[in-house]
## 1
Amino acid sequence: MSGRPKLTVRGIVKSFENDDGVLRVLDGISFTVREGEFLSIVGPSGCGKTTLLKIVAGLLEPDEGEVMIDGEVVGIGHSRVGYIFQQESLFPWRTVRENIEFGLEIRGVPPEERRQLSDRMIDLIRMRGLENHLPHEISGGQARKTELARSLVTSPDILVADEGLSNLDAQTRNYLQEEFLRIWQETGSTVIFVTHNVDEAVFMSDRILLLSNVPARIIDEYVVKIPRPRKRASPQCLEYRARILDTLRVEQEKALARQGA
Ligand SMILES: Nc1ncnc2c1ncn2[C@@H]1O[C@H](COP(=O)(O)OP(=O)(O)O)[C@@H](O)[C@H]1O
Ligand SMILES: [Mg+2]
């Protein structure tokens, strides 16, 4: 990891209007991700994680604050971030290869070059032989890997994954965590990984940010100084897990106290 700042988020504030008036979701979020870093963001459901990722990816405009990549402010619609969505998002009528090539088609990349690039991705995700299958003919884990390949094929500066490995059985999840790490290391990507799973964050990340309940603020930061490859149930992993869960519990108690529960 070079340590050079890759992405900086500064003073992000975002509110939405809902039936009860205005809901402030993000309450001044600032952080920096270094080039090649694997950063996880952990926070309770509904605290604004997806909203934050959409702002980072230029899909949503903040009310206040800015996003900088390589020292330059980027606006809405920038395409420097590869996004892995929370819901499965493959096109059911397109094969694995055609799904992977989608972003290249949009950018007008010629067919021969598309094929070369998608070939490289099919090898990277180790799905050779499955490239002509449709999404319903592959497993949930293979579908997530195809989405990862589709995001990586355009060589984005930064990859953001929104609960990318949720809704999978434990074995598939563990396998994909390892695959995701292998691909991160092979590609040298800068990753922002959103999860509500503390074990997953500890196993995978260089650093973890904890968010509070809405309106979300960063309540703590953990630099995970465990050598890789890590072992899931190692004493070091369990120690981080315990510290993080303690912080989250205190935060939850504070939120309940505020609600007068
Ligand atoms: N477009 C929107 N309009 C109104 N409210 C929204 C919108 N998007 C998200 N919200 C609300 O903002 C809060 C945070 O949502 P979200 O970012 O999806 O949280 P998370 O991903 O952490 O579960 C939720 O209360 C959600 O209902
Ligand atoms: Mg979400």
## 2
Amino acid sequence: MLTYTPPLKDMLFVLNEVLAAPALLAQLPAHADVDTALMREVLEQAGRFARDVIFPLNASGDAQGCTFDQGKVTTPDGFADAYRQFLDGGWPALACATEDGGQGLPHTLNCALFEMLAATNHGWTMYPDLLHGAYSCLRAHGSEELKQRYLAKIATGEWLTTMCLTEAHAGSDLGLLRTRAVPQLDGSYKLSGDKIFISGGEHDLTDNILHLVLARLPDAPVGSKGISLFLVPKFLPEGQRNQVHCTGIEHKMGVHGSATCSMQFDGATGWLVGEAHRGLNAMFVMMNSARLHVGVQGLGLGETAYQNALAYARDRVQSRAVERPAGTSAPADAIVHHPAVQRLLMNQRVWVEGGRMLAYWSALMLDQAEHDPDVQQRTAINGLLALITPIVKAVLTQQGYDGASLALQVFGGHGYVVETGIEQTIRDARITMVYEGTNEIQAIDLLMRKVLADGGRCLFAWLDQVESFAHGVADSQDGSQAARHARQLLALTEGLRTRLARIDAARTEQPRLPYDIAGEFMHIVSHCAFGWLWLRAELAAAALIDQALGDAKCTTACYYYTFMLPATQQYFAVIDASLAAGNAFPKDLINQHAA
Ligand SMILES: Cc1cc2nc3c(=O)[nH]c(=O)nc-3n(C[C@H](O)[C@H](O)[C@H](O)COP(=O)(O)OP(=O)(O)OC[C@H]3O[C@@H](n4cnc5c(N)ncnc54)[C@H](O)[C@@H]3O)c2cc1C
């Protein structure tokens, strides 16, 4: 069975030493009193909840799954009670505003909380995972009346929420959705249509469920510009059952504890959120929050996988290592001493620790984007956050899945059998690369919408900062390992700038080029972020009083620059080859091949 220890030391290293979160939060009036001690206290309590309350339900929830009977969904044993404890502890309200009944703490801490929740029970965590997105969406776009009625219920977690986008024929392309909303004389709407794959569409954790639903008004233009957003409660304000029902749940590869529901809206009463036909705009508030949360799911799952692979590698004895531990006379060594196994483990560690820096940095930007007193600063940070969000979603979920798979490799054949538990982590992690916008859609969003659409302005402004930092390290610490890494980082950003200019120049002649290489482009940008963060970590580690921790972080930073960053050469090579190939390929690559 899996074990989990909240990685508080690593979390606090990122928050306090790498990101200097307490100092940055102190500049935001809303979070001026959030200091290191408070952060530690919250993380310790959150870690206890995750480890002691929901982790014991992880394997049993997977084995039992949810059940469906005549419209009712029952979650696995213990899930409802765990949610009650979550509610009583005030955890759903952590990052919601105090005036709405929340605790008013930073998103940065909420991010760390959800890392630990996903690490210990991904299926259970999917129920409260959408709450903050729904809260932010309603707060930003809801009418005063809707906010009065529902905001506090969401903020406190008394009622859970869903995100009803997907229909059988409309997945990535929401412009195809058909659910209709007909205006009523009293200002409400009647919604009719069928949604599929709705997480938490029905369950037994809360008395009421609030659905945020995308639908079309009768006069809606076709495509994504004709979509509006509605709030549809399971129970109406006067207590009657609304005409929205769960018609079944999916039997699926992983996250068995999370009910994935088919939902039927049969003249259900709802209210418009935001402007008519601008529903995607409003929904994006929720989707962006959800995308960061999904990235954090990848991070949490990767952490659990790593912890368990490491423990197993220390215990499992096979063959003599090429460099044996001092004083060993046993016929064989623990596999943790074999370089090949160390590579498997370090690949996991470097992604988990790098992913944590990226995720917490994003969450910190979310706090700044909401609360920085300087409006220009808020706008700039919002732009950068929009740029980084698809990377957090796609890259961290890929790393979570890959990390779980590497962990299984460390377990050998024992990882492939159910008892060790690691195969559940792989099954659970796999969906994160698909839902909340597939990773292909994220890569295209980054290159087309976030970079090329604004002429690369936001990306370049951020690269300027990265380069200025790297130049500072290269110049001031010449001859050091950090200076060598800084120069590697500068070569990377320069390579990125050159390729982007070439992609931009070639795209009129080669219209499919950006779509072909969006994945490679995303990985290169992500390495600019990881390289920058690892360089910061390396400097912070060198100044630590805890020398063992500092040495470990410096080693991991060096590992990143030695074994991971060079992968960008391959991404550059693919982009260069695609540029050189011009229009050598037929338009319909696959069908020609099939013929
Ligand atoms: C367990 C689970 C939970 C979910 N929870 C929710 C939920 O709570 N709410 C909700 O609304 N939905 C939910 N979903 C749905 C999920 O968001 C969709 O499955 C996802 O967005 C992809 O849509 P699709 O499955 O229709 O795949 P498709 O859109 O058909 O995509 C199939 C493939 O084609 C690729 N593709 C499609 N379009 C493009 C394009 N333009 N460019 C490049 N590649 C493209 C995709 O990347 C993918 O590889 C959930 C799904 C699952 C399995």
## 3
Amino acid sequence: MKISLSSPALLVPALLLALGCAHAADLSPTEQNIVASIKARSPQALQLLEQSVNINSGTMNHAGVRAVGQLYRQALDQLGFATRWIDMPPAMQRAGHLLATRAGSATRGKRLLLLGHLDTVFEKDSPVQRWQRNGDRVRGQGVNDMKGGDVVILEALRALHRAGALDDTTITVMFTGDEEDAGEPIAVSRADMVAAARRSDIALSFEATMRNRAGQDTGTVGRRSSSSWELEVKGRQGHSSAIFTDKAGYGAVYEAARILDGFRQQVIEPDLTFSAGLIVGGTEAAVDAAGTKGQAAGKTNVIARSTLVRGDLRYLSYEQRDRAHATMRAIVARNLPGTSASITFHDAYPPMPPTPGNLAVLDVYSQASSDAGLGPIPALPPGQRGAGDIQFVAALVDSLDGLGVAGNGAHSPDEDFDIASLERATIRSALLIYRLTH
Ligand SMILES: [Zn+2]
């Protein structure tokens, strides 16, 4: 390749761009050190991930969750963090959490809270393979959700440590042991995380990144709540031949159908979903205590007396939730003759709205990625993600999620990840942590 000496300023950046290289000039010498040490350790990072994936840590396999915690704890001890294991009360039947802290002179940079989780949805008896490499991808239990992201945290911190860039920083790392099925009461199982957020300025969570349609890795600036509702409808039992008269009424099944269709026609809006997942109706209808199984009895010649519906509701802000609740309640109250209905709502995960503060953290992340030659990082549309741990702290601190590895099929037997994404995510995250803390 010939490079004309007459216009080097024009050609050299174009060449670097074409080769996908880092613009060395965009990274400080310390940052270049950090990137180099991450690249040098890529094989060991993959080994650490393999080692942790080979320990089954289904949420209910407490010994496994603690063993993964012990592995990560050793790494954090080596980096000069103060580590401790937090047990949950035995009645909660959860393994507990790993907490690691370091405190610097608070005048400089932001105080960070880094979030990962030790558990996976794959319990001890799961037939899903633990670690199976196929070329440049690996299938296995929790490889992208989220042991891959956990290793991103550890390797990013390790590179910063080697560059002397952890000195004087204030960083808390929390690996929860029950993200996939948070222990009840939530006020207890997430108390330590909330307390850590109160001592921090920014929360970063390392759940898998999600690719957009253009194939780019994205950042998660918003996540929707998870909540549920129960609809209970009553009708007047009677002879079916009299249905639709004022005296006999319309029955509980028609009234439930009217309500659900009203939801569909009047409540749908962007970033809001509500799914009716279970319905039973007839002369008798019952749902079990777990809310996942129902029983019904009825006859074609008897007007239905009872209908029960269970559903979820996912929203991006409390304003959106309140608006949806008000419309749903109004629809429920407009009863057909001879029927009555009531609806109750239960919140589980709070929403993480895409605030300007969250977008500002994404800007730093995207710039760091561009400066390292890894391309800009756009925001994932917030409606496209389920609930996660970061939502318990998002109201307290600026928050960014999706800093982990790239993969497919989380929670399924096909869960996998793209090996190259481990190094890529580690470089971006290390530079982000460096820039936020300096
Ligand atoms: Zn997860």
## 4
Amino acid sequence: MNTSTPLMVRKLLVDLSQGLPRHWLAGKPFRSQYFNALSMSFPVGEQEFIDAVRAAAATLPADADHIALQATIEDFVGQEATHRRIHDLYNEQLEKQGLVNHWQHWVRNQIELGRRRNVPALSRLAVTAAFEHCTAVLADITLHHPEILQGADPMLAMLWRWHAVEETEHKAVAFDLYRTLGGSHGRRVRWYMYAMWRFTTMATGQTINNLRHDRMLFNAATWLDAASFFFGRYGLFWLTVGPIFRYIKRDFHPWQHDNRELATAWLKANADHYSVVRGPTEA
Ligand SMILES: [Fe+2]
Ligand SMILES: [Fe+2]
């Protein structure tokens, strides 16, 4: 698969207006609040991915060699825009539960800082490619190890898996655009280190804040769950450390890990739960 492959834009058929269980992931506060924190980052974060990719794509030559790439970029935008909308609805419910989204402000401040410092479009794209790799790694784990969402509220399990499927489908779009525009390995790795640091600190900060508002921060069960979530069987740390560091290899490409069958299998099994907005009729 390469970036010229068209992507399908889907509408997930879920109704988030009825509210969400507070500890929707197997009744466990830590992992519920960790996933909630990630959801809080998406509306602003994914808008930045869209803006960064579009700004960089504007510098592509308008010739026949790049028509397919431009079309796939618009599909990428369509998928990320749908994710933003769904996570906005999800986050509205979190707000009703008393949680406060700080992550969105941290991202906005960073974007503003980047603008003031005139960060070039190619570096902004490198940051997007970096975050897209992080989400693709988390998406792969979510699809590959269904145990991670075992005991989850069925609607939220479906939402996270649908998002994971589409992150898998478009995992190489920002990366291939970066490469097509001649982005260097050094710049890619430097911004990746920055993105990893930002992701770790913001995910930690927002999860702790969520647990504080949930009145579960000073609770032994919360931290036992955190230890098992990161370091137990199917622990996130063990599952992510290899794929996360593979990105710094000079010859890395997202499709060296070909996991498209995970996405295809989920789409086939859950065809009743989404409608097709546009794109190829077969996933
Ligand atoms: Fe997304
Ligand atoms: Fe994405």
